[in-house]
Structure to design on (1372 residues):
């Protein structure tokens, strides 16, 4: 009798409570979702109203490239972000090779004058450091054999670098004077095997000697003494100011390649987008990542062989921002 | 036993009152020690082991540092798991321990293990444990800046480096002494360094290698003490100073000889002050700045520490050079004060309302005050309990306290005492003799003590399911449940002791029960209503059932939210750029972001941390910035009523216009918690473990494809691991050999030349700065010409770098994550419009059949679903168990299953009101609301218990059932109304509050108020009807 009433009562109570419990647990789950949703979908959920029509699509989808690589920015934002535009056009690519070497005196500018016949030095007209003209009298020597005096004259116009002997002395085997003409010097630049094929006589060289740049050309490329791995490129330099001395270390930039090409962009404009080289092309407010084939580059300019036409506007400065905008859905804070 | 206690309290009433003073003193004393913070600490027990490895790429950092460190930690007691992160220049291993592990003990064990592997690590690298702080640790931030036109002592303008020097050597040492501060972490500016920058050509010219320069600097920078000598009784100390002190000293160091001439540093290198290769930067209001953050020691009182720091900073200001300003940008005190103010206001207003209600309904001020006295006393007792059990005072722990609810037991006792005393009164119309008064109080107390004790016990029991929550939810809500339970127990003890004692002591005058007009009116209204209800019992029961069913349906339509968002008042946001973005680029982009944010009129200050600070508490890569947006007080807003959500939306819309940034909005403390807890926050996380990163990535991508194909999958993605562009200088071994170079020669040249190598320290008094040897900026930044970098040969000759090494630029892993000692990549996915369990099972099955996981690789499934599963499993066990306990308690109290069930019907009836209130206020169902429902069930049961036990007593006393029901119901109208009114009015301030932290309390209070209204109405009407119906065929006993 009693249970007749008790039972429905229990059932009533439990049935009333059950939805509550279920809901409580459900809310657990739902809450988990919404919490996670907030975090996870933030980049995507705004893709529609954000300027990016970005890389939500599969990267391997070929069609995505046509419209999936654009960013549109208002002129205000372009200004605020410091995005700078240039016009693509012809230019020249100058590729340099940096090398080091030392200054040497060309062999034809060193003269070691000796007394032709041994004898007594009767007179010496020049001293170390004096500049001498060609055929200028250097010394007068009395031959031991003939006892006649003969004159020793400078074979080249040069500076007296060394003098071995004084008046009254006998000349020995050693050269009496070392004359050096350093008005012209050679820079012997070491060209290592990896650079050898890029260097040839006739190329322009900019030699840096203690901060002064001397422009010249490569006169010759010859092997160094045996056993050295490098070859020597000789560059003639004029020592008009007299500040260069043989033995000085110099660095040089060799214009390994200097070509005029039909289309160049500034190298800062190139960005890598998923293994593709791209340049951002401006068309009104829309900036599109255009895949290009980059050719030769000298660090400042890069030749473009395909993908870009002359006269197109491309982004130079802060092109990274555009790349960042395109890829930003991948930007996350992984803890 | 209970009766003995009550008897003793009444007899020894003076002693009881004295004991109360003791309780107050203890409470006050503990209050001084109570850690107060805004939010509960949800950080797990963890230790971060950071190893700074300048120049190490992620792969090297993992191989050389992370792996040995992780391996050393195997088998630590109480170890839950380890996870690690290897980034450029940093290895961070996070060791998580089981809850309850003593952090100091754990750190000791780690320290011991680390000391054994020192030799296994590369020389010079030192693993360090992070500061002993939790997610609440970052309590104070300030920026160091110079006013416009301020000049340094040397007459230059202040640079970021000068400011950093001031921070490091003037501000930081002073602030670090503040008790409770564990670390002052600096980010921004540049560490001052002395740089020796050899010109490659000069080195060639003199035939000197970089190594020689390093050696020369190292061996020419030392002071030596040489003991002492005694001379004529005097002791002379001997020393030979040789330390380099200034740039000129460095320039004069001889590095070698060229012929017979000594070559000095000045001949071959530029010497000057230089910038470090920094890993982090800070910005404020669109400009670079130096940012200091004080970290609080675990378990300290954040409010006290933060205000101590602020005070100390005032003194620090006096010591700063003129023109240098330190400005506080974040101070936890503000938030804590606001939170405390909210709680205080709620509690105070609640208490006042309770007193007013008691006075109105009892018509006796003394009785009202006695009851109200229970409020502060139980509060003090609760505080004592909190300090003892290590529960901190915060929004969550204090938020659920409703003193109306807590004093329910006392209310019932006082009410009955008053009634009985008043009943006794007219008999002799004079003061009751003491003995008689005491007896009346005793019998009145014991009359209702059982139901009220059981009621309180039941309210306590209903909090049990909260203790079953684990993880973050558990940490958030355990303190709340613990505090409420402590307060209830305290109030119950007080109701047993203080209340009868005080009533006996103070209700000495003539107690006249002035039936307050309110009660008379209610009774006049209630009596006919009850009679009508008894007659129309089917209609009443039908309506009640319909109501319950309707509300159950309504419940399913309510939105839901898991853990409530505590509004911290300020905004934090991550600004993220693509991996591989350089620090300077990031700073430039950040400046744009900040200018935008600062342009909002509501914004007071904006500051950001980019990359990793000095102490890698939060190792972010340079492409991520943590922004903090401090808002002005609402009164200073152009529109003070603007909602925060609206402001956030406007900010986000404005920021989205800026190219290249991604954002994630959060709040300062929340952000820190996320950084520290750092689990998988999606519904499903599939972790792929293995060795080869490429294989891992491929497998993860395969899994991603499969997951994406499973119906219900949303936002599936693979963790980003690659994308850091790396320039590799790959040595050609044979060519090296041909030139007589060793691999090490080449590598150290590249490392020293580009990264720089430390050659010692330069001391300026206390301050010490690194002496670095590094190539000139122009040379080391010029990637195009790196190939031509001359490498010195043993004979003094040189060879260009391109001759002996290949240079290649390729993307490499930006970071390597490991968990439990193995590399891992996580694939995450959320679930939409599908049940999680089925989705997970589906995914598992399809992955098992479709993805070929290579041998040596394995998968682990985790994510929120795991927590959900475990929480569901626990709750499905605990909730019915709790209900069973409640019924069991009721049966114990009434010795009748039937009566117990009658009372139990009060629970769903009470819940209807809660659901309706939520629906009316358009609030989602949250855990806060759930706690409200829990509290509500307790109150409903308490009300029912009081009424049913009284009716039953009357009925058993021989009255006919109908009369017993009506008389019992009428007699208990006042206590039922009183408990209902105090409980609901106590929550009114909370329900209406809009202050900081109110969003947590509002749903709770709303539910309780709504529920109590319905529960009271239904208790008064439905319960008597049900009781009568169930007992209609029983003869009177």
């Amino acid at each position: 009798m009693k249970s007749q009433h008790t039972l429905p009562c229990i059932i009533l109570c439990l049935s009333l409570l059950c939805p509550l419990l279920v809901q409580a647990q459900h809310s657990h789950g739902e809450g988990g979702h919404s919490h996670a949703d907030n975090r996870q979908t933030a980049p995507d959920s705004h893709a529609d109203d954000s300027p990016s029509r970005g890389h939500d699509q599969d990267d391997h989808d070929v069609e995505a490239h046509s419209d999936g690589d654009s960013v549109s920015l208002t002129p205000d934002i372009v200004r605020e972000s410091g995005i700078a535009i240039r016009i693509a056009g012809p230019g020249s690519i100058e590729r340099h090779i940096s090398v080091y070497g030392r200054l040497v005196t060309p062999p034809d500018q060193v003269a070691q004058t000796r007394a032709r016949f041994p004898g007594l030095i009767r007179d010496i007209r020049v001293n170390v450091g004096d500049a001498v003209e060609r055929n200028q009298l250097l010394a007068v020597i009395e031959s031991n054999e003939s006892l006649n005096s003969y004159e020793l004259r400078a074979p080249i116009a040069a500076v007296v670098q060394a003098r071995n002997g004084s008046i009254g002395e006998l000349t020995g085997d050693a050269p009496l004077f070392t004359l050096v003409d350093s008005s012209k010097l050679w820079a012997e630049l070491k060209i290592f095997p990896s650079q050898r094929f890029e260097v040839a006589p006739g190329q322009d060289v900019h030699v840096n000697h203690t901060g002064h740049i001397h422009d010249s050309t490569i006169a010759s490329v010859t092997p160094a003494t045996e056993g050295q791995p490098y070859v020597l490129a000789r560059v003639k330099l004029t020592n008009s100011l007299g500040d260069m001395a043989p033995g000085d270390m110099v660095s040089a930039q060799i214009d390994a390649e200097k070509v005029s090409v039909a289309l160049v962009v500034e190298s800062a404009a190139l960005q890598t987008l998923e293994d593709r080289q791209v340049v951002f092309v401006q068309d009104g407010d829309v900036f599109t990542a255009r895949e290009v084939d980059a050719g030769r580059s000298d660090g400042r300019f890069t030749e473009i062989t395909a993908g870009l036409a002359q006269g197109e506007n491309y982004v130079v400065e802060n092109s990274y921002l555009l790349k960042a905008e395109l890829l930003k859905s991948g930007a996350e804070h992984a803890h | 036993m209970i009766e003995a206690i009550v008897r003793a309290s009444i007899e020894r009433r003076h002693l009881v009152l004295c004991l109360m003073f003791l309780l107050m003193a203890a409470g006050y004393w503990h209050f001084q020690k109570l850690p107060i913070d805004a939010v509960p600490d949800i950080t797990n027990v963890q230790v971060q082991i950071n190893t700074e490895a300048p120049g190490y790429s992620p792969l090297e950092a993992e191989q050389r540092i992370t792996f040995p460190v992780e391996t050393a930690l195997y088998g630590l007691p109480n170890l839950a798991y380890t996870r690690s992160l290897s980034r450029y220049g940093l290895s961070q291993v996070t060791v998580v321990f089981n809850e309850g592990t003593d952090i100091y003990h754990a750190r000791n064990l780690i320290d011991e293990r680390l000391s054994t592997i020192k030799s296994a690590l590369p020389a010079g690298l030192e693993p360090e444990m992070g500061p002993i702080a939790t997610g609440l640790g970052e309590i104070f931030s300030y920026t160091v800046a110079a006013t416009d036109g301020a000049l340094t002592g040397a007459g230059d303008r202040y640079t970021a480096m000068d400011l950093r020097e001031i921070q490091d050597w003037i501000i930081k040492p002073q602030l670090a002494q503040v008790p409770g501060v564990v670390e002052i972490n600096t980010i921004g500016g540049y560490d001052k360094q002395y740089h020796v920058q050899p010109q490659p050509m000069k080195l060639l010219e003199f035939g000197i290698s970089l190594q020689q320069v390093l050696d020369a600097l190292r061996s020419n920078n030392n002071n030596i003490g040489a003991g002492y000598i005694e001379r004529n009784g005097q002791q002379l100390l001997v020393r030979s100073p040789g330390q380099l002190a200034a740039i000129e000293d460095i320039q004069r160091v001889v590095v070698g000889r060229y012929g017979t001439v000594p070559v000095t540093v000045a001949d071959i290198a530029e010497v000057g002050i230089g910038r470090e290769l920094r890993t982090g930067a800070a910005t404020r209001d669109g400009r670079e700045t130096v940012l200091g953050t004080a970290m609080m020691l675990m378990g300290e009182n954040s409010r006290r520490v933060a205000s101590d720091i602020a005070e100390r900073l005032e003194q620090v200001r006096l010591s700063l050079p003129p023109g240098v300003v330190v400005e506080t940008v974040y101070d936890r005190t503000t938030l804590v004060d606001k939170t405390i103010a909210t709680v205080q206001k709620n509690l105070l207003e609640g208490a006042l309302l309770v007193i007013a209600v008691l006075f109105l309904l009892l018509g006796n001020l003394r009785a009202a005050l006695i009851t109200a006295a229970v409020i502060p006393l139980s509060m003090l007792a609760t505080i004592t309990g909190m300090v003892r059990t290590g529960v901190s005072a915060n929004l969550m722990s204090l938020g659920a306290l409703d003193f109306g609810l807590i004093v329910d037991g006392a209310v019932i006792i006082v009410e009955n005492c008053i009634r009985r005393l008043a009943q006794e009164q007219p008999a002799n119309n004079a003061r009751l003799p003491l003995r008689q008064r005491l007896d009346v109080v005793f019998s009145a107390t014991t009359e209702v003590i059982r139901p009220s004790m059981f009621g309180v016990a039941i309210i306590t029991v209903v909090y049990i399911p909260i203790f079953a929550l684990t993880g973050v939810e558990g940490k958030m809500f355990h303190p709340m449940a613990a505090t409420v339970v402590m307060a209830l127990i305290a109030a119950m003890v007080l109701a047993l002791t203080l209340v009868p004692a005080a009533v006996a002591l103070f209700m000495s005058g003539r107690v006249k029960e002035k039936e307050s007009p309110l009660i008379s009116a209610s009774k006049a209204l209630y009596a006919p209503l009850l009679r009508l209800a008894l007659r129309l019992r089917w209609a009443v029961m039908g309506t009640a059932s319909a109501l319950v069913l309707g509300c159950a349906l309504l419940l399913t339509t309510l939105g839901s939210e898991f853990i409530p968002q505590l509004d911290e008042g300020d905004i934090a946001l991550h600004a993220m750029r693509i991996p591989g973005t350089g620090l300077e680029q990031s700073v430039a982009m950040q400046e744009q972001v900040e200018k935008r944010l600062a342009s909002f009129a509501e914004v007071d200050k904006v500051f950001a941390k980019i990359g990793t600070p000095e102490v890698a508490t939060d190792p972010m890569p340079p492409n991520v910035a943590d922004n903090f947006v401090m808002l002005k007080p609402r009164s200073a807003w152009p529109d003070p009523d603007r909602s925060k959500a609206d402001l956030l939306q406007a900010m986000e819309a404005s920021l989205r216009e800026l190219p290249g940034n991604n954002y994630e909005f959060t709040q300062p403390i929340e952000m820190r918690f996320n950084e520290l807890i750092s689990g998988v926050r999606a519904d499903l996380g599939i972790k792929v473990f293995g060795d080869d990163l490429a294989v891992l990535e491929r497998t993860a991508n395969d899994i991603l494809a499969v997951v994406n194909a499973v119906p219900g999958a949303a936002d599936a993605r693979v963790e980003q691991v690659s994308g850091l562009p790396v320039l590799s200088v790959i040595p050609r071994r044979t060519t090296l050999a041909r030139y007589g170079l060793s691999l090490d020669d080449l590598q150290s040249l590249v490392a020293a030349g580009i990264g720089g190598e430390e050659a010692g320290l330069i001391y300026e008094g206390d301050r010490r700065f690194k002496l670095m040897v590094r190539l000139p900026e122009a040379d080391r930044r010029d990637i195009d010409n790196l190939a031509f970098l001359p490498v010195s040969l043993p004979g003094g000759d040189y060879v260009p770098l391109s001759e002996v090494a290949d240079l290649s630029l390729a993307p490499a892993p930006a970071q390597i994550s490991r968990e439990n000692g193995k590399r891992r990549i996580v694939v995450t996915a959320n679930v939409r419009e599908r049940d999680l369990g089925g989705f997970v099972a589906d995914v598992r099955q399809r992955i098992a059949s479709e993805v070929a996981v290579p041998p040596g690789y394995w998968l682990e499934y985790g994510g929120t679903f795991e927590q959900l599963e475990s929480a569901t499993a626990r709750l499905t066990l605990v909730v019915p168990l709790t209900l069973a306990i409640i019924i069991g308690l009721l049966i114990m109290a009434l010795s009748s299953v039937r009566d117990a069930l009658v009372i139990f019907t009060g629970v769903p009836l009470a819940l209807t009101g809660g659901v309706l209130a939520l629906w009316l206020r358009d609030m989602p169902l949250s855990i806060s609301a759930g706690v409200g429902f829990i509290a509500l069930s307790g109150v409903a049961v308490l009300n029912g218990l009081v009424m049913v036990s009284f009716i039953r007593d009357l009925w058993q006393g021989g009255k006919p059932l109908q009369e017993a029901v009506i008389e019992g119901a009428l007699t208990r109208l006042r206590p039922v109304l009183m408990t209902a009114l105090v409980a609901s009015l106590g929550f009114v301030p909370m329900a209406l509050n809009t202050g900081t932290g109110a969003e947590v309390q509002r749903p709770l209070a709303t539910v309780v108020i709504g529920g109590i209204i319905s529960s009271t109405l239904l208790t008064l009407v439905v319960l008597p009807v049900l009781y009568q119906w169930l007992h209609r065929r029983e003869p009177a006993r």
In short: Chain B touches chain A through 96 residues (CB under 8 Å). The mean pLDDT of chain B is 84. Residues 597 and 685 of chain B are 34 Å apart (CA to CA).
